[in-house]
What we know:
Blueprint: H1 13-32, H2 37-47, E1 59-60, E2 63-64, H3 69-88, E3 92-94, H4 98-120, H5 134-160, E4 165-168, H6 173-192, H7 195-224, H8 238-263
Parallel strand pairs: 3-4
Antiparallel strand pairs: 1-2
Amino acid sequence: MEPEPVKRTWPAAGLKAALALAVGLVLLGWLLNTPPGLLGKADALGYAVCHRIDLRSFHLGERALPLCARCSGMYLGAMLGLAYQAIRRPRRSGMPIRPVQAILVVFVLAFALDGINSFFSLFSPSIPVYEPQNWLRLVTGSGMGLAIALVLFPAYNQTVWKVQDRRPAMDSLAVLAGLLALTGLLILALLSGSPVLLYPLALISAAGVLVLLTLVYSMIWLMVLRRDNTIRQARELLWPVIAGFGTALLQIVLLDLARYALTGTWDGFHFG
Length: 272
């Protein structure tokens, strides 16, 4: 007689309670020790991953957005790409078709080249091949965000679901064109400078930092606990998402602490 397979379960109720308490305490500590207000919390999220140089950021009135122009584009593009796929192709786990992959490679290369050009402009205006512009940072950042989303979404589905739709999540250039059209509108909204548009976009871009990290860490926890490819219903994702959220938040806390210890301010770096 063959032995019964080992049933893979989540930790006992006591460990779940301990996890929830630990995550709650980390969240409370972060909330109490970061700048006040929604934009203040958004600044603290951006502070963990972005230089936040004032001249390289869009502004809401007198204050810079929580993320620089490039990072704003990247995280907004990623959030849009994830939402677009979740609505149109909720459980598809196949990677984009090859023509789409080729376009994503172009986006990644454009992001890298513009980033390198912009980086060297910090040291001398004569070094860059062309003059860096915030609109270019935004456009190339948005392209990079789309590339991240179009790879992360099917990878997440591959890791999570027991029953999957293995067709490509991005299965045609026409579907990609629709996403690019929406991205263009997103870029125009940021370039408009309208406070009515910039305020929610600022919050969404900062939330994107936490969302992307949570998705990645929840995948990792599923694999560590040998629960990958076992989820049947969305409600079963509660504990892996809590664990992923807690890990993501802990990373943000540690990065915030390290940067604040070095600079003594919540402002962006003061050069460039």
